[in-house]
Amino acid sequence: MTILIVEDEEATARKLRRLVQEVEPDATVAGMTVSVDESVEWLQTHPKPDLILMDIELADGQSFEIFNRMPVTSPVIFVTAYDEYAIKAFKVNSIDYLLKPVKEDDLRSALMKLRRMKEAFLEQPDGLNTSLATLLRKLAASSSTEEPPTPTEPAYRDRFLVKQGQRLFSVPLSDVAYIFTRNKLSFLKTRDEHEWMIDYTMDELSTLLDPNRFFRLNRQVIAELRAIDKVNLYFNGKLKVSLRPVFEEEVIVSREKAGEFRIWLGE
After folding, report:
1. Which residues, including other chains, have CB under 8 Å from residue 54's CB and lie 6 or more apart?
2. Where's the Response regulatory domain (predicted)?
3. CA separation for the pair 169, 146 (Å, rounded)
4. Which are the contacts of 59, defined by CB distance < 8 A and separation ≥ 6?
5. Going from the N-terminus, what domains does the chain have, and what CATH number goes with each?
6. Can you give the pLDDT at residue 168?
7. Whole-prediction pTM value?
8. Which pLDDT value is given to residue 112?
């Protein structure tokens, strides 16, 4: 088995390499990369690894960007510092994930799970890649080459499940004014000024929300049309947006997105 380790923390990368050698003595760590750019270059210039151990937060962005830039068919085990609640969305159809600091037993269990999956798909060579592709579509941001949803899947979400204590309930999108990030977590802001945490990244949400109703103003905020209170010209062709309910931070639309935003508003 050949393994690529994608990890920007040197100490964690060394530990992963040591654990791989202890848990899977016959495995070969074929490469170790620290960024999105380096990982893409490595995958384009080397034979496909049998497995990728991949951190989510890298030096130059989230590792999901790798899948936007090129097709990745190797099974992936994500390594993350997120707590379990924040990464529940990644568990659907995933190969596995490991929480930092990675433990030997966790890695051994993940490799055993991969082995069982390969055995299950032994008579269907494309089966494992199909399962992985399903995961990657859920994790990666939307791209022009992404396959459209199947007829059995709704095109866009109309509600989100949120948690309050031990209670779960749905928040209709008609109640949502905007969605924003704080400390790498995503939150719904409703028109009555409630905030609810949801287990989706902003890139995922960009593919789940109706673009006629929602616009991604910048990396931090996705707003519903009725939440746009004021739009003012800003320097260098940028736009400054005021939201309602009021958003605590300044919301700036870049010069590159300003034209698209103005068209979306009805120009």
Report:
1. 6, 7, 63, 66, 76, 77, 78, 79
2. 2-115
3. 31
4. 8, 34, 35
5. 2-139 (3.40.50.2300), 159-265 (2.40.50.40)
6. 81
7. 0.47
8. 86
